Amino acid sequence: MGWFDGWFGSSTTTSDPLKSLDPKLREFLERESPVKIQQQIQEAEQAAAAAATKAAAAAEAAISAATTSQTSQQNSADAPTDSRPKVPKESLFQDGRYAHLWKTYRPYAEIEAESKTDHEKLMDVLDGYKERKHNIGRAALENCALQQEEWVNCMKSGSWEDRMQMCRHQVQRFEKCYTMQTRFLKALGYQSVYNRPAQVEEDIQMHADKLYQRMVEQEKAIEAAKQEGLPVPKFDLSIPGAAEMAPAIQPRPDLEKSWKEKLEQLPEEERAVEEAALRADLQAKAEVAKNVQKLWDEQEKEKQQRKAEGKATVMDRITGAFGSK
């Protein structure tokens, strides 16, 4: 064998230093030579790079497929929005769930309106007009809270002279504030539109207070000019925004004449505001009359329908008899 020759000094010479090695050892060294190890490393790196490329391509394909699926799902979710069953706003599930339970739903206000008598409908219209006047007074009181507080403090702990006069000056300031605030609120259309957002009404109330404060400053400037002997400054006394809300209803000649007589008794700086308030009141009354006439027309239509169907009531006959006379 090979290693015996090496031990006993074999004279065989060769240029291959590995020739004298054991064939198995030589085979092992050839298999594990650095060149082949580097080749194996390169092959492993190439295989890893190919695997990474395949993995990246697979991941990109998966992402693309997921994006396409998500887009299609979104489109499919957006597309049938109109085809979803509609539910009323009272439902907590606006996506159409339990729509079959809401098919026969009717708002309580609608049912209550149908069950009301003609007298109740008429009273609702009149109560709405009264409530508007009440709300205007309440808003004017809120805007005049400082003047009212001044009056109350004067009555509690005011000077002896003011209390002897029943706080006359404070009462006058409060009454003037309340009157002018009421006029501004009417002229600006406060509570003139049914079911208007509360924020809009609050903005109108704040704007009315701003106009009143501006009017007070103008009066102070006019008074100061008179005391100093200077020319009286001229101010724009019109109400911003009142022209756009000018009512289409024109007053009767006799009513317009009474308006002029009333306006002539007021100071010049208050006439424009009072006239705008009068016109706003006329518009509100015209709306009430329009609603009342609408109720009467509906009642007459229902009465004629019952008469045509042969279901006329005793009240229909009585009203018809008095109407024929």
TrEMBL record:
Biased composition annotated in UniProt, kind: Low complexity: 59-74
Spans annotated as Disordered: 1-20, 59-90, 299-325
Ranges of compositional bias, category Basic and acidic residues: 299-310
Name of the featured protein: Autophagy protein
